[in-house]
Amino acid sequence: MAGATLRERVNLCQNQSQRELWLAPRCASGQSPAAPAQRRIGPNQVWRVVYEKLPDLPKENHYVLRETGEVDADNTLMRRSIRYHIFVKSRPPNYRLDWKLTLADYLDANEFISESIYPGHDLLGEKWR
Q1: Is the Cβ–Cβ distance between 83 and 119 less than 8 Å?
Q2: pTM
Q3: Count of alpha carbons within 13 Å of 77, Cβ hemisphere only?
Q4: Do residue 81 and residue 27 come from a single domain?
Q5: Which residues lie closer than 8 Å to 3 by C-beta, 6 or more apart?
Q6: DSSP one-letter code for 22
Q7: How confident is the model at residue 40 (pLDDT cuts 50, 70, 90)?
């Protein structure tokens, strides 16, 4: 995979049974380093990286588990939006335009997000303040 083009890597990633995101540091020339320097991270873990890079981004993790009534601290806005993007809308994680469409969905500027398909709708309830 070291000599693979970006398109080949994207196709490989899209053909895997569980989609994964590639986090690749950039070289000074703007090119990605060889494949061994890349690390694969699954969609259920990438939200942590987002919050490490953007610590001021609101977590919006005040929802409670319906079964226990306890706050689910790991169910953050980014985790839900990543799951919506990849698993509900089946959009590839590698293209900016697709992420812009997902953001537009959240802003009600593209498609309406039905509560019945939103990630966590069957497990979470809103915490009463």
Answers
A1: yes
A2: 0.66
A3: 13
A4: no
A5: none
A6: E
A7: confident
- In the chain the first and final C-alpha atoms are separated, in Å, by 51
Write down how long the chain is.
129
Same domain, 2 and 29: yes
- Total domains present in the chain: 2
Residues 6 or more apart whose Cβ sits within 8 Å of residue 68: none
pLDDT tens for each residue of 67-79: 888 888 888 999 9
Residues 113 and 80 in one domain: yes
Same domain, 37 and 48: no
- Per the listing, tokens 């873990």 go with 45
- Whether residue 93 is found in the same domain as residue 63: yes
At 114, the amino acid letter reads S
Torsion on CA atoms 109, 111, 114, 118, rounded to nearest 10 = -90
Q: Which domain holds residue 73?
A: 43-129
> Torsion over CA of 38, 32, 3 and 97, rounded to 10 degrees?
90
Distance CA 68, CA 83 (A): 23
